[in-house]
Amino acid sequence: MSNIKNIFLAIIISYSYNCAGQQNGPTGLLCELLSHPELSAITNPTPEFGWIVNSTVPGDYQTAYQIVVAPSPFLLNSANPELWDSGKILTNQSINIQYGGKPLSPHQSYWWKVRTWGKTGTSSLWSEPQKFITSELDAQRQWPGESKWVKMSDGKGGQVWTMENRHPISYHDVVPDRIITRNNGILFYDFKKSAFSYLTLNITSKSPKREEFILKIRVGEKAVGDSIDQKPGGGIIFQTYDLPIREGSHDYDLKIPRFVAEYPHSQNLPAELPEVIPFRYCEILLPNGAIKVNQIIQKALYYLNDPEASSFSCSNEKLNAVYNLCKYSTIANTYNGDYANSQRERMMYEADCYIQQMCHYSVDREYAIGRYSAENLIYHATWPTEWICHSLFMAWADYLNTGNTRLIKEYYKDLKAKTLIALETENGLISTLTGLQTKEFLQSIHFNGKKLVDIVDWPSEMQGIQPSGERDNHELKTYNTVVNAFYYRSLVLMGRMAKAVNNQADADLFDQKAQKVKTIFNAQFFDPKKGIYIDGIGSQHSSIQSNMFPLAFGLVSNESEKSVVKFIKSRGMACGVYGANYLMEGLYDAGEGQYALDLLTSETDRSWLNMIRTGATMTTEAWDVKYMPDLMGWSHAWSASPAHIIPRKLMGIEPTEPGFGKIIIKPQPGDLTQATLKLPTIRGEILCSFKQEAGVSFEINITIPANTTAKVSLPEMGEKNSLTVDGQLVLAPVVDSSRIILEDVASGPHQFRVQRMN
């Protein structure tokens, strides 16, 4: 008996020793870029896997992995998983690993897990198993990326609606933040935030007279005091609905009429799901006290998300308010499982979706909805000329954030056409007004309308609104500066994407073409006397758009940057909410962090704080109703760009290698005294916080995920600086353009401090 005890004790000691030497199992598992593939239906017969290397070893990186896939959890933990055991694969690749086992079957459930080896040569524990479910694997599609609504088992004997290759949308219960009974007996409910939603109620009726069986219920986005604004203007929502009630206590759903599409590619909810409309407030007109509302719930609809995945706070409360507005707007406008914005259209537009895609990457570790939206738009192009180029922007953003080339490979021919190279004329520039918009050209970019129209910024004359406000009086010419700036940027990105899929011939072709266009662009559109860009060939006018887009896209020479930036700063926010995305990018890339921060926290009527001041809880379609009096809605994520500008440009965290294997951290704090950020990435969260005493010291704490390295660029505090890294003094630090540079910073937590030396 004692021998058995000794053997048992030896096993325990051995197990404890092995576990002590092992790292935790990988976390953040992704299957087909889905963090919860068990809630979706996958159509790829060879799905791709990814994970976060969950190591606490400083500077750790993956040296190998092993994946097993099985048809049941039991077999997953057996010696023979039946479907696939990759064995130990020597590589640091932790994302986009393609399934390599026996063929998968449609409409089946599978499980997978993974373990990794780090730089110490010791394997980690196994990850928790992850379930994924297949859909039709060889079904005919109207277009390659089509994602259908499908029914799946809820695990409880019932069925739920979900989507192929995307996470599901679901309704979330929101209780009133305020309830007020007005003197006239009307109940006023404030749910604190607007959401695409409907209402559920529990009501007790005390045998009202027949004509009182209909309750009048009002919903709206804007309030005046403790009442809903019944004439809010623009496209801001106010609606009145009838709710029939019965005697006694009953549960009711306020049925919103089905959305009627007025546009060719509007997105509709399945008929089986309750319809929604954006609102924050509700009023109920009670008839003579005969009816009692026992409960009222706002059923807010949006895409699966992790609200704790990201965060930002700083010493400027105005900026905190702007960030929170934009973060919420990004999530609230996923109600259809894609990036279709606004109640009026519920239609995806390339530029709108690109901005929301960038925001979504910054607030959640979510990639499938952006990919679907990008694929959808490749085959359903919209009318603005520059929007076509945004399909390349979306494809590049997908690759940069996921490291996955599948979208580029699948739509490579389409993306080449969307550079608009077919519109190039003999002078090397493109134009939509020279007769080159042939039927064949429009078909090549999957546009079914009559012609593309240059938009420059929003709104345009097509909506019957003069462009003087949002376009800064931009003068439209046959050869347009803004359009050709987009052409240049598209050529640059197409060259990079060609290289990513190993098409070196195309990469060289597009690189050479881009350089040629850059030379022609500056020769034709730059006015050397004024030191700024004009609106087009033959124009004498210079708008902010004709200068901020070249600045954002890298067209401005080093010699001209100062004069171009000076002009841009003289115009303030003389652009629309869409254009503000590129204004911010251009300013930060030019090192104008303080001025950009001033715009982010501006309180003029052309600002994000004005949206909050007017009562909106989602970003709006224009800066103010007066700039779009007939159309402006209060539910539009194309104006939520601070959600990605703050982490990417102010905090300065961006990938320098697709998939975040390498990153740069280049904060431009302006006059903020402190800030803290949590940023989700495909390789894990990045934590960053700084505090500074202006001109005296700057201290930053950074946590870099395992399997990632960083270049850190810090502001100088004066002509002479001391630098400490993790408490150690660095002699003769590298300085470039008034920034202190540290290359190849390994993963793990680090502290950097720059101190001015007297």
Supply the key terms.
single chain, 758 residues, alpha+beta, Immunoglobulin-like, Jelly Rolls, Glycosyltransferase, 4 domains, 8-stranded antiparallel beta sheet, 7-stranded antiparallel beta sheet, 17 helices, 26% strand, globular
CATH class of the largest domain, named Mainly Alpha
Main beta sheet, described? 8 strands, antiparallel
N- to C-terminal distance: 76 Å
What share of the residues lie within helices? 25-40%
Structural class: alpha+beta
Shape: globular
Count of helices?
A: 17
The low-pLDDT segments are 1-20, 461-468
Q: What's the overall average pLDDT, rounded?
A: 93
Number of strands: 34
| CATH architecture group name of the largest domain | Alpha/alpha barrel
- Count of spatially separate domains: 4
Radius of gyration: 28 Å
- CATH fold descriptor of the largest domain: Glycosyltransferase
Strand content: 25-35%
Descriptive report:
- The protein is of the alpha+beta class.
- The chain folds into four domains: 162 residues, Immunoglobulin-like; 129 residues, Jelly Rolls; 340 residues, Glycosyltransferase, CATH 1.50.10.10; 95 residues, Maltose phosphorylase, domain 3 (Sandwich).
- Helix content is 26%, strand content 26%.
- Helix 6 runs parallel beside helix 10 and helix 12 packs across helix 14.
- The longest helix has 22 residues.
- The chain is globular.
- The chain starts with a helix and ends with a strand.
- The N terminus is likely disordered.
